[in-house]
Write a structure and sequence with these properties.
about 220 residues; alpha+beta; 7-stranded antiparallel β-sheet; 13 strands; disordered N terminus
Length: about 220
Amino acid sequence: MAIFTLQTLTTPSLHHTVQLSSTRPHQNGTIIKSHSNSKCSIDPTNNLTPNPNNKRRLVGVGIGLLAASMLISSPLDANATRIEYYATVAEPSCELQFAPSGLGYCDVAPGFGEEAPYSTLINIHYTARFADGIVFDSSYKRGRPLTMRIGVGKVIKGLDQGIFGGEGVPPMLVGGRRRLQIPPELAYGPEPAGCFSGECNIPANATLLYDINFVNMYSGNRK
C-alpha cells in the first residue's frame, strides 16, 4: 500500500511547489519513491490561489487515503498481518545440536505423525533467515506451504538432512517444528544464489537459519 506525504517547499519565487511523494515496496524488497509536483500561484497580497486542476488532484489523493484507511480494518488485511507475523517472528529458542556434517538442529516440537519415506512429496512451512536474523524467504508470506520431494537432492543438502535425517540427525515427524542452522557447505557454498538482473538475494558463503514446520505428506493439495 502506497503511503503519501504532503510537503510544502518554501521558495523566494512567486510559486510554491506542493510535493506529493509516495513509497511502495518493489518485488525484491526495494523501496521505490515517486514524486509529483503541484504548483499554486501567489497574488501580490501573498494570498495563495490554488489551481483548480491541482485541487481536483488533491481531492483524489484524499479519497485514495480514505479507501486505504478502510482497507486497514478489513479481514483480508488482518489475515495478511498474521501471515507477516509468522514470517518474521522466530520460533522459541532451543539448544542446537551439531551433526558431523556441521548441520545444527533442535526440535521446538517433536511432532506426532510418521516420518517421511525416501523420495516422498511433503508439505512444509518455513522461514529462512541469515545469521543476523534478517528474513530472506518464507512460505508464510506466500500464504501456502512448500511442496518438496525429500531426500533426493531437490533442495539444498542441509534441508534434506535436516528434515529427512541422516548422518546423526533424526528424521522429522509430521507435525514437528525444527530449527536448522545450515553452514555454507550444506547450503549454496561459495557462489551467491537467488540472483536476478545482477542482484543476488543470498551472498556467497552464507550461513542460513531455517524454522521448519512439517505440515503433512503431500496428497494432491496444500493445507
